[in-house]
UniProtKB/TrEMBL annotation:
Record InterPro entries: CHIT_BIND_RR_consensus, Insect_cuticle, Insect_Cuticle_Struc_Prot
Name of the gene encoding the protein in the UniProt record: Dana\GF23877
PANTHER family: CCP84AC-RELATED (PTHR12236:SF86), STRUCTURAL CONTITUENT OF CUTICLE (PTHR12236)
Origin species: Drosophila ananassae (Fruit fly)
Keyword terms, alphabetized: Cuticle, Signal
GO CC aspect terms: extracellular matrix; extracellular space
Signal peptide stretch: 1-18
Coiled-coil stretches: none
GO molecular function per UniProt: structural constituent of cuticle
Pfam families referenced in this protein's UniProt entry, alphabetically: Chitin_bind_4
Protein name: Larval cuticle protein A2B
Length: 204
């Protein structure tokens, strides 16, 4: 692609700089000569010398984290919360690639679960689970519940509700028994005015 571009540019330069060389029997037309315009000579502008200031090269390279070939740690904790019944503990130690630990907790049924675990590059992670009988009586979550207030039945706000069943079922006698209230006598049928037939084309 670059070769084609160079070839095309070379051809363009050759055509632009072509000169007609008069050969035998070919004379160039005489062009009128124009007087030359004398332009005043302008001095080149003088700029103050620019000093180059090199920006400080600051390469932010993340330093590698220090490698500890023999990491060691040890920790433990105990929790005994009498308000929630949460009782648990854990202890763990590490020496090199070998981790040993144990944790225990009181389960919901009151038994204590004890888990002893080890981890190393040869055997991987191993855990042994033991259960002890009900050490502590199972503690239910503490929640203070107020006894519900006795329900008081207030008198109805409306002493008598009119039956709308027959009025709504006017013209549909099969619906009147379904809509009629079961708590009192039905009201006499009311004559409703007939509604004019509405066509969907009547709306604009």
């Amino acid at each position: 692609m670059a070769q084609k571009l160079i070839l095309a540019l070379s051809a363009l330069v050759a055509v632009a700089s072509a000169v007609v060389v008069p050969g035998p029997g070919l004379a160039l037309p005489a062009y009128p000569s124009y007087p030359s315009l004398a332009l005043p000579k302008l001095a080149a502008p003088v700029y103050p010398a620019l000093t180059k200031v090199a920006a400080p090269l600051v390469a932010k390279v993340a330093a590698p984290e220090p490698y500890d070939p023999n990491p060691q740690y040890s920790f433990n904790y105990d929790v005994h919360d009498s308000s929630t019944g949460d009782v648990k503990s854990q202890q763990e130690t590490r020496s090199g690639d070998v981790v040993q630990g144990e944790y225990s907790l009181i389960e919901a049924d009151g038994t204590r679960r004890i888990v002893q675990y080890t981890a190393d590059p040869v055997h991987g992670f191993n855990a042994v689970v033991h259960r002890e009988g009900a050490v502590v009586k199972a503690v239910a979550p503490v929640a203070k519940v107020l006894a519900p207030a006795p329900l008081l039945h207030a008198a109805p706000l409306v002493a008598k509700v009119p039956a709308y069943g027959p009025a709504l079922a006017h013209g549909y006698p099969g619906l009147a028994p379904a809509l009629a209230p079961a708590y009192g006598p039905a009201l006499p049928k009311l004559a409703l005015p007939a509604l004019p037939a509405l066509s969907p084309l009547g709306y604009h």
